[in-house]
């Protein structure tokens, strides 16, 4: 059985306020997306990597993100869809995984994943069919309606979902196909599995695994990399 990684990188990141896709912004000596790919390219238990980007950006991605860094596991780039769910589905159809292979879906804008979390996430997906990385929320959460608090849920039950989200290929493929048939839009890939009534395990990650969405996130990512000695920018 093989382990395949899908990296959706089709979002423009309007909150970043940049003129280019946020995944191409510099983080140290390379673009954000190259850091993300490297996490998996050098991991011994990853076999194939499929980067999913807008069709018009495929030459740019190949030139700026893939070719300069000597990745050996990146397969032909996949054209994204109108929304993230469509992009992931395109990646699933392109990867040609076996039914029991594991597919890891990881945000292109999460370059700070701890590699030590990859194997536990794969193992949990093999046992349960589906697993995600997440962290307990730090703050008290309020449910608000019309500017007024409705209720305060028990913080001990609340987790912040991250990626990678890992699945047996047959399970996540079928979930995406059914979602298209029934016009269902999930908030993440795990929500499609939940919608089908299947269990999803949670592996505790860490708070460093941020998604770069705003300019402040990019500053924080650079600080994390400086602390670990991974870049000089």
Main sheet summary: 7 strands, mixed
CATH class category name:
Alpha Beta
The SS-based structural class is alpha/beta
Question: In angstroms, what is the radius of gyration?
Answer: 18 Å
Helical fraction? 25-40%
Order of helical and strand elements: EEEHEHEHEHEEEEHHEH
> How would you sum up the global shape?
globular
First-residue to last-residue Cα separation: 39 Å
Structure notes:
39% of the residues are buried. The strands form three sheets. This protein has a seven-stranded mixed sheet with strand order 5-4-1-6-10-7-11, with helices on both faces. It has a two-stranded antiparallel ribbon with strand order 2-3. The chain has a single domain (3-131, 163-228), classed as Alpha-Beta Complex (Spore Coat Polysaccharide Biosynthesis Protein SpsA, Chain A), CATH 3.90.550.10. It has helices at residues 32-41, 58-66, 84-95, 118-128, 169-181, 189-195, 215-228, and strands at residues 3-8, 26-27, 30-31, 48-53, 78-79, 102-105, 130-136, 143-145, 148-151, 159-168, 201-204. With 233 residues, it is of the alpha/beta class. The model has no long low-confidence stretch (mean pLDDT 93).
